[in-house]
Amino acid sequence: MEEKVVYMWGYLPGAMPQRSPLLSPIVVRIPQQGVGVGVGVGIYLWKDVCGGGCGFAMAISDSGKLITWGSTDDLGQCYVTSGKHGEIPEPFPLPDEISIVKAAAGWAHCVAVTEIGEVYTWGWKECIPSGKFLGEPAVDKEASDRQSSFTAQQVSLHTQGSRSTIGAASGIEPRGREDGAKRRRVSSSKQSAESSSSGDEGLSALPCLVGLNPGVRIVSVAAGGRHTLALSDIGQVWGWGYGGEGQLGLGSRIRMVSSPHPVPCIESYSLRKDRAMGLSQGCPEAEGPRVPGNYVKRIACGGRHSAVITGRHFSSWVDNRDIRSLGYTNISALAYYKLSLINADAGVLLTFGWGLYGQCGQGSTDDELSPACVSSLLGIRIGSVAAGLWHTVCVSADGDVYSFGGNQFGQLGTGAEQAETLPRLLDAPSLENMHVKVVSCGARHTAVVTGDSKVFCWGWNKYGQLGLGDVIDRNIPSQVSIDGHVPTNVACGWWHTLLLAESPT
Asked: Which one of 88, 99, 170, 369 has the lowest number of neighbouring Cβ atoms within 10 Å?
C-alpha cells in the first residue's frame, strides 16, 4: 500500500509558534490515534486534503476522521471552531460513529459529508442552517417546520429577475483591511435575537447535523465566504446561508436562507421531455433557457459567487419506449447511441452570485442572481472548477485551464494584473503540453496538479502560499518543487496550501 503524505505551506498562525509564514513545503506531522486503556497506540494515515478557511487547515484520515490544525483566532477575530489552536493536527470532535468522506471550509465555517450522505456544519451562526446541534436537546419539530416554511416564503416573496447590476441595494459590506471581511454584520432580526449575548457567544455554533429532505444523500460540499452548497447523489444542488449577491442562485437577493433549499441549476427531466414531445407534435418550443446536461456533477463556492458543472445521464434521455422515436430498430444501435452520449458528457459551466470583478465570466460586472451558462465556454467540456475570493478557474476535459475574475495579484495566471470578465485560456509556457488534472483556489492564489504529477501555483504570495521559497507574487504558473513524493491532490485555504502526495512506486 502506497504511503500518503501531506505537505503544507503559507500562513497557519497556530501551526507556527513564531507566527512566521512557511515559504516552502513542509511535511505535516501525522497525529497519534488509539491512545487509551487497552488500546494500542498507532498513527492516522492520510486519505485526502480539504484546504481550510482562514488560519486553519483540514485533512481526512483513512479511518474517516476530520483532522484539523492551525489557529482559530488571529488579531482578535474569531474565525471558526476548528478543533485546535496549536500546531499538532488532531481529530475534530465529531461523533465517533461517523466517517467523513468530504469537507470544505469558508471564511468562518466548515462543512463535512459522512459516508452515508449526511452533512455536519459549524462555525459562524449565520452560516449554519436549522438543524440539531450536537450535545443539545432535540428541537421542537413543529417549530422547526414553521421556521422552514417561513424561510421558503421569504425566498418566494423576494424572487426577482435573474440578473441585476451591482449597487447599493445589493447589501455588499465594506471591505476592511486587505481581506475584505471585518467583523460580520447580521440582519436586524438576528441582532435583536442575540442582543443579550455577551462576548463572542453569538459568533460560533457547535457542529450541527443539517436537516435535509428524506432520502437526500449528499456526496460533496463547497463553502464560500458565508454560504454553502451541497451536491446530492442524483445531481441536485442544495444551498443555504447568505445570498445577498445571488450566490445561492435563487433568483433574488435574499440575505439569509436558514434551511437548505434546492438551487434551480438546470431544467428537470420532465420539463425537457414535455418540450421534446411538444416539438414532435409540431408545437412551438416552450420559452426558457436550455442548459445542456440534466444533472450537476461539480460544485464550487467563491467568496460571494458560485459555480457548477453539468453532466448528462444517458439513461434519462433514452428508454425502451423511445427507441422507435429515435429511429433505432435494434439494441446494438441503441447501445451505440447511449455510448455516444456518455462520450459527449455535457461539461457546461454555470455561475451565479457577485460579479463585480467579472468572476461569473459573463462578460460584465453584473451580479447573476440565477445560474447562468458561461456561454463563451459552450462546446468545451469543463471537467472541474474552483473559485477564490474574487476569481474563478476551470479545467477542461482536455486539461486546459481557463480563468476569469479579479486579478489584482496575478491570481488568474495570465501574465498581467487586469481583471477578465470572460474566461481566458492560459497559454503560459510553463503549462505547455501539460494536462492539468486538479485545480484549487485560495483567497487570491491558485494551485494545480498536472497529469504527470507536477504542482504549479500563482497569484498572491504575501504569506508564502505559493510555496516558492519567497513572498513575491506571481502572475504566471510557477512550479513548486516536491521531492521524493508524487503529488495527487491540492487544496487551498485563504492564505495557505495543502498538498496530498504518495510515495513513488
From this structure: 88
The one-digit pLDDT tens for each residue of the chain (505 residues) are 568 999 999 988 766 555 678 999 999 988 777 544 333 446 789 999 998 888 788 999 999 999 988 765 544 333 444 444 457 788 888 999 999 999 999 988 899 999 999 999 988 888 888 765 555 544 444 434 433 332 333 333 233 333 333 222 222 233 333 343 333 322 222 332 222 223 344 456 788 999 999 999 999 999 999 999 999 999 999 999 999 999 999 999 989 998 999 999 986 433 333 444 443 444 433 344 467 888 999 999 999 999 999 998 755 444 444 444 444 445 455 444 444 444 447 899 999 999 999 999 999 999 999 999 999 999 999 999 999 999 999 999 999 999 999 999 999 999 999 999 999 999 999 999 999 999 999 999 999 999 999 999 999 999 999 999 999 999 999 999 998 899 999 999 999 999 999 988 7
Torsion angle of alpha carbons 504, 386, 98, 88, nearest 10°?
Answer: 60
Of the CA atoms within 13 Å of residue 274, those in its CB half-sphere come to 7
* Residues 6 or more apart whose Cβ sits within 8 Å of residue 43: 30, 31, 32, 33
- Which three cell numbers, joined as nine digits, stand for 335? 447501445
CA gap 367, 165 in Å, rounded: 6
Sequence-separated (6 or more) residues with CB below 8 Å from residue 55: 11, 12, 13, 14, 70, 71, 72, 74, 79, 493, 494, 495
The distance from CA 136 to its chain's CA centroid, rounded to whole angstroms, is: 29
| Pairwise CA distance, residues 4 & 25, whole Å | 15
The set of cell numbers assigned to 137 is 436537546
All 3 cell numbers of residue 277?
414531445
Q: Are 456 and 448 in contact (CB under 8 A)?
A: yes
Its sign, for the CA torsion 489, 409, 404, 268, is: positive
Residue 318, judged by CB atoms within 10 A of its CB (0-12, 13-18, 19+), counts as middle
CB-based burial label for 267 (10 Å; 0-12, 13-18, 19+): middle
